């Protein structure tokens, strides 16, 4: 009888415990279970920047090549030396043209010959004019007795004077023709002198004379630009992430602050022949927006490549984000004291942080670990995180919260 009574009490108790355990653990159970929450964090509004670092060196942004065409030209001398600073318009070297000099000498000879002919013609004209004056002065005075002889003499003198005048006209015409010829020679000589006077090649850019080939092998002069740039190498993983136009940050111990820039070019072919046993490296170059004056070529710098970034977005720790076959989710600690499963849409993820595009707002609290798989919404308990009652802490509490805490204290009394 006594055993029967014990059995009648124990069996229902065991059955009750088993049923409760079953209802609690069943996947679709509506029985609420209290979840112990040890680590949690509030979502913050912040920035996420995905980046990687590479080594680089400062180099001129470009090189300007100066050539010398030896055809019909003789090189005279260089006017600059390696290391000289030049600006646009600075003379670099001089040359002369034998062909132009020969043409000039030929034209000067022809001009001199024409001027000699003009001098001879002017002397001939002077003689003809003197002869004309003498003929006119020796003309006899006619009288009635010798009228016939006088008429014949006058006709003879007029013919002589007319012939002289025709000779003078022809000589003046020839002189005019030769003078035009001399003017043409002078114009041609002046044109050649202007060309030979400009027989210098000047720089088209500002920069530093990097190299001079005194053997006159082209390019005879290489000018490095004053504008600095960066040049370095990407490994295979970095090459996959990087692309031309991406933002970069340039830093070094000699720089007071980071310099902004962008990737200008990435060589698509490896620096060395591809090998199975060796990782490939890819040359890249980047431009710097505003470089300080004391940024020397050859300086070693660190380059941070900004692959992607999200600015002013809700940010949560990556370990608070969970994923099933359908979607991503987090466990949110609500103000009602419940641990709720929330579906979210994430964006950029980098260095242990996730951007949240949808589902969580700044200020929401999320669980930093996974909850039991069957929990969708359940009460939670968490250790009290005591705050030191200092002035800084008090300033973070709103007036409404202060009043609430005061009332709780009074009512608890």
From TrEMBL:
InterPro entries tied to this protein: BSH_YknX-like, UPF0194_transport
A Gene Ontology term for the protein's cellular component: cell envelope
Coiled coil: 97-131, 168-195
Record-linked Gene3D superfamilies: 2.40.420.20, 2.40.50.100, Helix hairpin bin
Record's subcellular location: Cell envelope
Keyword hit for Transmembrane: yes
Keywords, sorted A to Z: Coiled coil, Membrane, Transmembrane, Transmembrane helix
Superkingdom of the source species: Bacteria
UniProt entry tagged with the keyword Iron-sulfur: no
Transmembrane segments: 6-25
Main location: other
YknX-like barrel-sandwich hybrid domain location: 65-216
Protein name listed in UniProt: YknX-like barrel-sandwich hybrid domain-containing protein
Annotated source species: Peribacillus saganii
